[in-house]
Amino acid sequence: MAYWLMKSEPDELSIEGLGRLGEARWDGVRNYQARNFLRAMNVGDEFFFYHSSCPQPGIAGIARIIRAAYPDPTALDPQSHYYDAKATADKNPWSAVDVAHVQTLPRVLELGRLKQQSGLAELPLVQKGSRLSVMPVTPEQWAVIVALR
DNA sequence: GCCAACGTTGGC
DNA sequence: GCCAACGTTGGC
């Protein structure tokens, strides 16, 4: 089983929102590197749910992959914010996965705190200038973060 | 293939 | 709202 971290703006989908829904489609990823990581995910993989572009950026919970990558329908929907005019049903370059809520953390693990952990220096999240929204997390990094809860 | 211009991300 | 950093686009 692999570990990941994925960013979401809580206004779009928060860990609390996922908790209410139980399950959700993780769509709208429009970066090739992030998409490739989505495609590498397997059912059962777990990921840290990160809240970005909000008053308290940080890891807010844990969730699980329940469906492996499939064509992202929002790319074909002209009404969608994530519509891609160049995508077609036959050639849709974008992928989505389905996820399920596992755990909402009692307190958000704030970005500033994560940056202080020496064991996380290699994590793209804490690196200057990194905007990657889907990234792998090593078992060692996972353990460091889980211990902060 | 280079690179300037532009759009986006995301913390602050 | 600001702005640094990054990714993408498109002319040449």
From TrEMBL:
Residue ranges of domain EVE in the record: 2-147
InterPro entries noted in UniProt: 5hmC_binding, EVE_domain, PUA-like_sf, THYN1-like_EVE
Protein origin, superkingdom: Bacteria
Name of the protein in its database record: EVE domain-containing protein
